[in-house]
Amino acid sequence: MSQFSPEDEVELQSLLRQLLTSIKDRIAAAPSIESAEEILLHLEETDKNFHNYEFVRYLRQYVENSLGTVVEEETETLARADGQPAIGPGQDTLIHAITRRTRESAEYKQMMQTLKNTMIVVVESLINRFEEDQMRKEETDQEKQHGQSNSHYTDNCSDSDSSFNQSYAFLKQEQLQALAEKLDSSRPKEVRQEALQALCCAPPSDVLSSESWSSLRRNLSAALAEPDPELSDKVLQFFAKTLSSSPLNVTREIYTSLGRLVYYIHLSFIFALCVQMRLMNDFQKEVTTFWIRHPEKYMEEVIESTFSLLSLHPEHSGTSPGTEKSLEPVHLLALLDVKATWFKKWMHGYYSRTVVFRLLERKYNFCVASVPGSVQRSVYTAKELEYAYFVHSLCILGKLLIYTNGRKLFPIKVRQCKGAVVTFVLCIASNIYYSLSPSGLVMELLWTLCERTECTAPCLHQTPVIQTLLAPVIALLTLSVFCLLSSTTAAHVIVQFTQKLLDKQLPSLSESEFLHTVCGAFIFVCRQMYNTCEGLQVLRPYGLHRAIAAAWKKTSSLSDRVPTPVPGASAGTSSPSQELQNMLWEEMLLDSLLNFAVTPKGLLLLQQTGAISECVSYMFSRFTKKLQVSRCEKFGYGVMVTQVAATAPGVMALHSSGFVQALVVELWSALECGREDIRVVHPKPTPMDPIDRSCLKSFLSLVNLLSSSQSVWELLSHQPLANKSEYTLREIPTSIPDLIDRLIAVNSDAKIHSLFNYEQSHTFGLRLLSVLCCNLDSFLLLESQYNISALLLQSQGENVTDEFIIDSLSVERNHVLVRASVVGGPSERRLPPRALQEGESPFPWPMFSSKPLPQCYTLETLKANQSKQDCEISTFLASSKDTEMEESWMEICRRQYCKVMTTKPNTLTGTGRSLAQWVAMQLLCYQDFVTSTAQVRMSDPHVCVFLFCLICRYGSYLKLLKEDAVQDLTQLLKHIELFLSTQRANSASELTTLQDGYPGHDWLASTVFLIMAGDMDRSLRLLLNLSSLLTSAFIWPARIHASVHVPVEIAGSGIPPVYWCTAHYVEMLLKAEVPLVHSAFRMSGFTPSQMCLQWLGQCFWNYLDWPEICHYLSTCVVMGPDYQVYMCVAVLKHLQPDILLHTQSQDLQVFLKEEPIQGFRVSDYLEYMEGLERSYRSVVLTDMKNIRNPVA
């Protein structure tokens, strides 16, 4: 559409008339023509309905029709242009380029010229129409108003039915002066009414800017204060019209005038005063939407006028004192806006909140100290008025308490006494128990304070407040109020009360119909504590998990005894409503038990109750229904599922509940089937990422499920692959072995043809395999059971013609083979990339289909430090032979170690002799976990030759082992396995990981073998002595696995101490010391405990370079086992920037598992770890020493 027809011009004229009619009030209020033009130019910025006007829609459609083709052509041209210098990488630059080219086009110029010519015609037509209407109206007005005394005031006022119908008369200064004189209180009532009528027709801007405004305001005040309702109504009409149609620089003058008028209105004229306060309150609530666009002084004037009004008290109004107090403006404001909505809006934005705090602090502090008065009226009783005032004051003071500057206004002087923040909170808390109606308001305020961490400590975590809140609980427990000393003690009171409710030891509540409601509420409070690591530390001694489990078992047994309904039989004693209540109570108890699984130690407590399977089944039922965890939980069941999946009993509970099967089926549906509820109109685009976004969630869920080697062993051990000769297209895998068979071990044409998206699905499987291989124990199982390496090499061999065919699958297989076949830290091995490069050689890395691997994937090792650096340590050890048994020797030893680590950290690496000497001296002086030494004999356990060769190849690379070291390593592991087997408890558990010794490889033994340079005898002697140290229970997983040195129920749980102790405290310290990392794990659905379990289980192999592995072990042995916790916290703190980055890209799990820890040195963080020791050793080390009784 480039030309306008006559019909179009008529339509444009009508639409333009509608637009002008809609904004006529704003144009009329403009003080000048220039201001009216400014209003029209900025209409889009100031009018929220701008894009809804039909005229604007018409113009937008016209522009789209005229320039749509041009914009599309320019977009395609710029998109096809490769390396166009005018276009940058950002989308904004592209939009600017398209806009510039469009405006330079001939179509744009033609459109603008046509539009300009047409609008000129349309506007001229409207002007002519307006002039005709105006002349006709003037004639009518002259006939109607002939002979009237005030006709000269309405000469320019149009009341016609034209589209420009105005209700204003433009008055001169002389006319306004005359109106001011006529409004004088000495004039007759009729004259004043006529003057007010004329004033209401005048533009407010003209009135306020006139020289007569001061006298007008004085006379308006007098009229508003008079008892005549007609005069006061006219005055309020004038103010209301001004407030609704004027900018802030005008309305703030009206508002402040209204505030001053209160001083002149007698409070007995209650109706007029209520109308005035209602008008002011409406303005208070609306002014926040636009005052930020004006100078701050305008806003400050409005706020100060309000506080000045609220500070008006009876003693200021000149009334004589009596027994009955006079009504104050704040009472009326409380009646009109009982919840102080105006004040909440003022406090919402920092822009206005700052001014409020400044004025309250400097000038109007007594406003905060206002207390309700008492007066009897015909409509509102004294109690009703006092209650409205109370609610209004409560809302204002509660809003002030939320902010730091608001709390600084306290203490305040209230009735000759000072009231601090705690005193005020104490007062409102007391209202909970003495008045039913205010209790809900007070609880709402307390909830608001609880939701803000910065408010909780100064307002609620105070002894008097806690005492008041817990007073009924303490009374029922028959305890003294004075024994409640702190919020920690309050936690003890709450858990004791909850236990008594569960055990029905409170007679006054045991028979109450609200017992379950009250008990459930207190359990929920306890849940908020025990689902955090620090909260669980407080509640653990009370055994709340046992009390909840006992209550659940009792309730469950009652529901099991409910007879099956039989037709014709009596209904029995229990009603359907009671059965429903019992069912809800049972689910609530299960849900409360389930929440113990949020923390590692809590999961151990849950496993000890014997209800872990039922809890996981309950979680799965809610998970499938997509129900929220609780009203305080934000991130769903992701973290809880990951925490449960990290342990053997947890993953078996997930498997038996159907969670694993549901996860596999959901993955297969997304990967192979697609969504069936969407009708396919366009073919699905080919995914550009290795893992399509539609499958990413399922991929990460699988990574979380299989993160722990224990979960992999439970789900895969003794589970062969199907390897069928034929697969139907409708055959869906339902287990992890089925998934490996279909997506990873794709070694036949039948498997290839069974996949709709072979390349995408196989790539998905290889990516999953890559993550699994990062856990060396998981890879050991896959290799020994499925011979994964041979399958991948076979597939690579089949991908060769004259040379390797480079595609996404061959590149992915090459990466997995190198990752699984080469051991080393970040500077010890080189992993090939997964992406092709541009140029003639897209993949310069050599591929292979047989072993050994090309040398390019192993980096050159640095020369080992020689024994000259060992002199300082050797000198200290030699000089301390006579003082070894002194208590101070250990502290001297640790200081010397820290000094060496800080100045010469490489001294403790090399051949490892110095480290061995340090450990040997430790074993002589620090035997706090003594065990009996069994006679060592030869045994013949199953040994993975592939893994031994891998370890010895790494030792040879480090120049620590000779080529024939495999035999010595084999002998060492045989001795150690026999020794440890004599100290394992017999277990009746059905868990696979507890059946045949330690599941996985003894990585500490292999590390010590490399430290001792392949000396089997010295390695064995060191390990046997190390087993007597407490440290061995944590740095040596095979040592404590199912050990007789822990309680039988803990040994049979299948949960290692490194998980329920070390990882538990890592999460606790992480939340306090590195909160951003803790939050990142929380949001990603992953847990720090799973990564710590993997790092510590394989002694940081493949994650740290060899010197740092030595430093990790020597630090834990010399400095104490709690340094294992501090080490993990230091590593996560070091990785904080990368963790935050990969949390945003939603691949945190994959990054932490696949990438080595770059740039981390133990010596750099030793001082940081010493700081953690000073803060947390009393808690962490004490619990580690209590390993024999961890659930007490």
Helix content: 55-70%
- The DSSP helix count reads 64
Shape: globular
Q: Give the number of DSSP strands.
A: 2
Class per helix and strand makeup = mainly alpha
Radius of gyration (Å): 41 Å
Beta percentage is under 5%
- Give the terminus-to-terminus CA distance: 84 Å
Question: Spans of 5+ residues with little confidence (pLDDT < 50)?
Answer: 82-91, 146-168, 315-323, 370-378, 415-419, 428-436, 479-488, 864-869, 923-943
Widest sheet: strand ordering: 1-2
Mean pLDDT: 78
Sheet with most strands: 2 strands, antiparallel
Secondary-structure blueprint of this entry?
Blueprint: H1 6-22, H2 24-28, H3 33-41, H4 43-46, H5 54-80, H6 91-103, H7 106-144, H8 173-182, H9 189-200, H10 204-209, H11 213-225, H12 229-245, H13 248-261, H14 270-286, H15 296-310, H16 314-317, H17 329-336, H18 341-348, H19 350-362, H20 365-368, H21 382-402, H22 404-407, E1 412-414, E2 417-419, H23 421-434, H24 436-450, H25 453-460, H26 463-469, H27 471-476, H28 487-502, H29 507-510, H30 515-530, H31 533-539, H32 544-560, H33 576-594, H34 600-609, H35 612-624, H36 638-645, H37 648-657, H38 659-673, H39 693-705, H40 709-716, H41 736-744, H42 749-753, H43 758-774, H44 776-786, H45 788-797, H46 808-821, H47 871-879, H48 888-903, H49 913-925, H50 945-957, H51 965-981, H52 1003-1011, H53 1016-1026, H54 1032-1035, H55 1037-1040, H56 1048-1051, H57 1057-1073, H58 1075-1084, H59 1088-1097, H60 1106-1119, H61 1123-1134, H62 1136-1144, H63 1148-1154, H64 1162-1185
Antiparallel strand pairs: 1-2
Helix pairs in contact: 1-7, 5-6, 8-9, 8-11, 9-12, 11-12, 11-13, 12-13, 12-14, 13-15, 14-17, 14-18, 15-19, 17-21, 21-24, 23-24, 23-26, 28-30, 28-32, 30-31, 30-33, 32-33, 33-35, 34-57, 35-37, 36-37, 37-40, 38-39, 40-44, 41-43, 43-46, 45-46, 48-60, 49-60, 50-51, 51-53, 52-53, 57-58, 57-59, 57-61, ...
